[in-house]
Amino acid sequence: MSKIADEKLAAQGRKKIEWAESRMPVLMSLREKYGKSKPLKAQRIAGCLHVTKETAVLIETLKEAGAEVSWSGCNPLSTQDDVAAALAEEGTDIYAWHGLSNEEFYWCIEQTLNFKPTLTLDDGADLIFTIHKKHPELAKEIIGGTEETTTGVHRLRAMGEEGKLLYPVIAVNDAETKWDFDNVYGTGQSTLDGIMRSTSVLFAGKTVVIAGYGHCGRGLALRASGLGANVIATEVNPIAALKATLEGHRVMKMDDAAKLGDIFITATGMKDVIIGRHFESMKDGAIVCNTGHYDLEINLNDLESLAKTKREVRANNEEYVLKNGNRIYLLAKGRLVNLAAAEGHPSEVMDMSFANQFMSMISLVENKGSLENKVHDIYAEQDCDIATLKLKTMGFSLDKLTAEQVKYLTDYAAGT
Q1: Which of 66, 89, 206, 258 has the most CB within a 10 Å radius?
Q2: Where does substrate bind (predicted)?
């Protein structure tokens, strides 16, 4: 069973998936390896993750390893309808289409639970939260789950610390081969891609205000600077703010940055980062967008209340004319601009993130019954194996320590 936008788009979607496969050698090599041993045989995986061509490669790899899969999108605007059609045509149960209402979004999640999953795979933890809030009885059959985002991991850790998590979850987001690459290079490139597609604006000479200087914010600053923009970072964490300063960016409060910015990008995972008073002090023509998982970082109610007119001027670009006469351009309705207005992260970087998802599914099965009901980090060995495999597919190799060098590492008597 599936519910998608248009089954006629399947052929177009299949071409996209095949392109992604050609860019994701790590995941494809894992598909070949585990397609023989079928370690996920008899497992039922419910997934809630952006339906993109890269996700399709992950889904079909999980199936090749023996799993049954039922899937929903994790954001109302991120589903690529042609990819969803291609997956449905090949027999994947998928409930996702671009432009879901909030009610439809949760309806789709509910459908993926009908086959009583034994594993969950999440991006934002909406699937896990739905199970805990509405279907706790399903947790008895669930071996474990994975979580892809910083926001989701933070909330699940809090649940685990309070003893309210009903099954173990692996923090895929916290793998070095995920957040030091996907978050930095993926978000940095794909977010700017989304902004350019929806505005065609020149970055050179612009002042770009980045709210949040974590891994994602750092990647945004790196790419914006590379295009000739001047970067201002806003932060609540002094260490992150210091990093931004020493990497050449100005750091200030949003109240001050709002008066200077030409383009604003939120990447915090926190609500109300840009609110009414910030809109009121922005320049005429300011562009505002979000690349955090949820659409609460920009207070849209405040923007609506300040506006006297609103119209769509380009795809994924709405012009709000404020009562003071200034124009504010909101991209992708405050949703993830890199997925709603572009295609998400490049396949090459998602290769490592989704290899971690795949291997974590296998790890949960192998460790069934031995993991506490809390959030677990990925094994360091898995991180290193994926990094090594990625380097190999890129044509690079590593030096190896000699036996004497290994001995020297722990020889406390060696001195100087």
Answers
A1: 258
A2: 52, 123, 148, 178, 182
- Residue ranges of the annotated binding site are 52, 123, 148-151, 178, 182-183, 212-219, 235, 338, 345
Is 199 in the same domain as 326?
yes
Q: What is the structure's pLDDT at 326?
A: 98
Q: Known binding site for substrate: residues?
A: 52, 123, 148, 178, 182
Domain that holds residue 336: 187-340
Give the max Cα distance, the chain. Answer: 75
For 115, the token pair is: 């086959």
pLDDT band at 414 (very low <50, low <70, confident <90, very high): confident
Q: Could you list the residues known to form a binding site for NAD(+), using ranges.
A: 149-151, 183, 212-219, 235, 338, 345
| 3-class secondary-structure state, position 33 | helix
| CA 65/CA 43 separation, integer angstroms | 10
Sign of the dihedral defined by the CA atoms of residues 200, 205, 207, 213, in that order: positive
Q: Read off the pLDDT of residues 145-158 as tens digits, 9 standing for 90 and up.
A: 999 998 899 999 99
Q: How far apart are CA 170 and CA 142, in angstroms?
A: 13
Indicate whether 365 belongs to any domain: yes
Beta partners for residue 44, in sequence order = 68
pLDDT of residue 416: 63
Q: What is the DSSP letter of 202?
A: -
- pTM for the full predicted model: 0.93
pLDDT at 153: 95
Give dist(CA 401, CA 305) in Å, integer.
63
- Are 281 and 309 in the same domain? yes
* Average pLDDT taken over every residue of the chain: 96
Q: What pLDDT does residue 316 have?
A: 97
Over residues 181-196, the pLDDT tens digits come to: 999 999 999 999 999 9
Averaged pLDDT, 365-389: 95
Between the CA of residue 26 and those of 58, 305, 349, 360, what are the distances in Å?
A: 11, 49, 10, 15
Mean pLDDT value across residues 163-172: 98
Dihedral, CA atoms, 159, 161, 167, 173, nearest 10 degrees? 80
Residue 403 lies in a domain: no
| Alpha carbon separation from 368 to 95, 169, 411 (Å, rounded) | 28, 12, 39
